[in-house]
């Protein structure tokens, strides 16, 4: 009885207390806004979300004139340090008669080689900037050197073929190629220039490099371009092991094959190029991570999954280039496009807060690398411009990536943070400790290509701040 009475007393007191404290709860709608309870924060405090942020990489879409100023610095440096001239290797005197082979003729020394694969990409980059900005200096840079290479091919090729071992030529590595690096990227630049209307005679040069890429380079049994084939003496080359796929070769060979289709009209080249992309990807793309391994050895159970940034750049660039010429009605066009989209989506998830990508993409303990970031900038911006991926998703991040690359261009036009030439390894230390140098040629062409594509993208689409975030703001009128 005592407990029952105590409960009734407590219950009654509680009900009375609630009724006294909240007499209006029965008459106010649950949808009504609550009354103001106290004075709000001071005006200065209310705008904390809008405080100026100290971004290490500029957080905005760069104006076209600013992009062009960065590219102009790079152009001035390269134009100054890559002379298109021959000299006598002993006397240093200019060699002006290019109609006959001269065993003492060499290129006038510069910072970079005019027939390296890196310079094939640089020629393509110069063409891209010239096309988008209408600055003829960039176009002329490439065409002047292409014309020189064409003349040297006519003059020296017969002698080189007559004596492959002992003959001399300033461009012998091109006239007698031993690897895709000697031929593929150069060939790609020749065909891009030809399709753009260049008057240079590319016939002989395209014949030489196109034949090497499509017929002479070693392939696996299913036709995939590979290294580590026969050494010509009964053994095999160790590159670094027999039957090794290098992701680099997706760019060093496959765009050339696709562009041969565009130049000749023969669809067999389109078939080969598309199959190459899918066969490389089947072996080397990790769909869970969205990125590629650098190397694959046919016949091994496990493979060295080192996700080197620049090699992933060669892959994404190759796909962007191939889709420019692969007919949309080709049976494998959709598969190549989906592979490009999958790779871009994967890459996007690894971009650092400063706009770069790491030397080993999924290893934040490795340094932020410039050439790969430039290649991704180009390929992703091109994919946006072609409608392969959404501007809303990828435009802001690729603007950030361009700003990161631009920040590595010095006042004299050199580019910092470029990893030097890199072989293949089965351990992370090799990649993590590769040096960087402003004399590493690999970053110059991609930077030119990236800048050209960013200009084109920001002409087409507007990006600006919305609630402090860099966002897509529509198609420009």
Structural write-up:
GO terms for molecular function: hydrolase activity. This protein is mainly alpha-helical. The chain has helices spanning 2-21, 43-46, 64-81, 117-133, 136-162, 172-175, 180-195, 203-216, 249-252, 254-264, 267-284, 309-325, 333-348, 370-386, 391-406, 428-432, 444-460; strands at residues 86-88, 105-107, 244-246, 285-286, 291-292, 295-297, 357-358, 368-369, 461-466, 469-475. It has one domain (56-471): Glycosyltransferase. The protein has 17 helices and 10 strands. A two-stranded antiparallel sheet has the order 1-2. The longest helix is centred in the first third of the chain and has 27 residues, at 136-162. Residues 1-30 have low confidence and may be disordered.
Q: Can you count the helices?
A: 17
Main β-sheet description:
2 strands, antiparallel
Global structural class: mainly alpha
Instruction: Work out the number of β strands.
Output: 10
Euclidean distance between termini CA atoms: 85 Å
Q: What's the pLDDT, averaged over the residues? A: 92
Radius of gyration over C-alpha positions, nearest whole angstrom: 30 Å
- How large is the share of residues in beta strands? 5-15%
Give the spatial strand order of the biggest sheet.
1-2
How many separate structural domains? 1
CATH class: Mainly Alpha
Order of helices and strands: HHHEEHHHHHEHHHEEEHHEEHHHHEE
- Topology-level CATH name: Glycosyltransferase
Instruction: Please tell me what the overall shape is.
Output: globular
The CATH architecture term is Alpha/alpha barrel
